Amino acid sequence: MSKIEKNSRRVRKLFQTLLFLTPLLVIYFWLTVDTPYDYLTTTGMVQTSFDIDGWTDTPLTLNTRFIAMAVSLLLCSIIMYALKILVKLFKNYENNNIFTLENAMSYQKLGYCIFYWVGGGFLYQPIITLILTFNNPVGDRMIAISFLGIDFLTVLFGFIVLIISWVMKEGYQLADEQNYTI
Fold first, then answer.
1. Burial of 168 from C-beta contacts in 10 A (0-12 / 13-18 / 19+)
2. In this structure, are residues 75 and 50 in contact, taking their beta carbons and an 8 Å threshold?
3. CA 144 – CA 146 distance, rounded (Å)
4. What is the 3-state secondary structure (H, E, C) of 68-135?
């Protein structure tokens, strides 16, 4: 077994594990946040980008938790789609299928996933703040919208991944043309 095959198998298994754990961790987070069972945030293993206590003085109701969980799982589905693509990509690497059109298309899909992630995050912020502040008295409900520098860098990274996919696709087509040239 070559080094590429061995390392690709390890990375593929890691991505498969993350694909399985991601929705479970989102569900666990929303069911336990601000409860005595909230081991992820109290131990510092998970740090959220928003302060729930800063948005609401009342404890989260079960209904609020389920709605927030559903919205978070929608955003999480983008990550899960990207992980699915990465599992397929590293499975190809594991089988020594490296410079293929399928892999170039996988990189293209990953590039688009990055754009979906930024767009999803841009929509997620106002929706989750509205959900978390909905039980506040009228006048204390909020909608927060933000586009940070890291979001700009993420979009830039998405363009880089797309360019790599285009280069890989072009390289595959040139190699394919050479195979048929006598």
1. buried
2. no
3. 7
4. HHHHHHHHHHHHHHHHHHHHHHHHHHHCCCCCCHHHHHHHHHHHHHHHHHHHHHHHHHHHHHHHHHCC
Q: Are 40 and 28 in contact (CB under 8 A)?
A: yes
pLDDT at 58: 81
Q: With a cut of 50, list the residues of the chain below it in pLDDT.
A: none
> What is the pLDDT, as a whole number, of residue 107?
97
Q: Could you tell me the maximum CA-CA distance found in the chain, to the nearest angstrom?
A: 77
Cα–Cα distance for residue pair 82/170, rounded to 1 Å: 23
Residue with tokens 């298309």: 105
Q: What number of helices (H) and strands (E) belong to the chain?
A: 6, 0
Residue 50 confidence (pLDDT): 67
